[in-house]
Specification:
With 318 residues, the protein is mainly alpha-helical. It is built from 13 helices and 2 strands. The two termini are 23 Å apart.
């Protein structure tokens, strides 16, 4: 398939995919498509699982992928209308009942005093997207900024095992949240957030998105698997998609990661979901090992963004 045929294939998918294809690839902001996400397809399925107590699953963070937390993250990435009242009610409920002593989000008794920076980043991401009043997010921001590590990134294990080196998993979740907070138009601690994003991005780029800064070896082979939804897990496409969403200019340290992504393209021009993270889910959006509209869309918008920098053609690694 050529690019036009691939776009047509994408437009045959869920309405959430259709909306983002029009917005990100075709330059058309079709609000009518966005408004349909809550009433059909994946969006309707997620919303239908919400319980009368305002939660999904059992509570905020249990069971893992069907909990309130990860369902709200899924709905944010569907690009549900940011003014959806049911979602806003659930976020307000979490803020009313689950603030830890450090101002972050409490997952349970073990995080009642010092919260998890990775979850705080993800919470800030969807709470900002769904237009939560800015002042209600100030303590979340404060708790995140308190956790910046000397190497510029973040690691949720500092609160559990005293980690001394940042984690790509935690760092990507945090900067996605900080970026969404600023994109929403919020200005609290603007300079501190910009500085934190810059240092965290440099941490990722220093590792060329997936390589040890000391040995040059692959940090973890799973970083090269294109999974969706990403949950809390890092991979190179998630990082590249962050950089395009951030509006970051091309950096040569992205080259090897993008070359790996291009090597994974199918002969028909699509990309697969390579693996599914184990755990209970509300439903399966796309099957592992099959062509993925999510991954194809994300790769195409990454390529579109970096073409603006007159990027030279990048060939897949052999």
């Amino acid at each position: 398939m050529d690019e036009k045929q691939i776009i047509q294939w994408l437009l045959e998918g869920d309405v959430a995919i259709q909306y983002q294809v029009h917005r990100d690839l075709l330059g058309n902001e079709k609000k009518s498509l966005q408004d349909r996400i809550a009433n059909e397809g994946w969006g309707k399925q997620f919303l239908s699982k919400r319980k009368s107590n305002g939660h999904w699953g059992d509570k905020f963070y249990q069971p893992k992928w069907i909990s309130t937390h990860y369902t709200l993250l899924d709905l944010r990435y569907l690009n549900l209308n940011p003014d959806n009242e049911l979602v806003k009610e659930s976020i307000e409920q979490v803020l009313d009942t689950s603030i830890a002593a450090d101002g972050g989000i409490q997952l349970g008794p073990s995080t009642a005093h010092r919260s998890d920076v990775c979850v705080n980043g993800m919470f800030l991401n969807y709470a900002s997207y769904f237009n939560t009043p800015e002042e209600e997010l100030h303590t979340i921001v404060d708790s995140i900024l308190y956790e910046i590590m000397p190497d510029g990134g973040f690691n949720c294990r500092t609160t559990r095992s005293g980690a001394k080196h940042s984690s790509l998993h935690s760092t990507i979740s945090v900067i996605e949240g900080l970026n969404e907070f600023q994109k929403t138009g919020y200005t609290y601690r603007m300079n501190d957030i910009s500085s934190a994003k810059k240092s965290a991005e440099e941490f990722i780029l220093t590792h060329r998105l997936f390589l040890s800064d000391r040995t040059g070896e692959i940090i973890h082979k799973d970083f090269l698997k294109l999974s969706y939804p990403s949950r809390w897990r890092y991979d190179i496409l998630r990082a590249l998609d962050y950089f395009q969403n951030r509006g970051r200019k091309w950096d040569k340290r992205m080259h090897e990661a993008l070359a790996v992504v291009l090597k994974k393209q199918n002969k028909n021009g699509t990309w697969n979901v390579q693996a599914a993270h184990p755990g209970q889910v509300h439903f399966v959006m796309e099957k592992a090992g099959q062509p993925s509209r999510w991954n194809t869309l994300r790769v195409m918008r990454v390529l579109k963004h970096f073409r603006k920098d007159k990027l030279r053609p990048i060939r897949a690694t052999s």
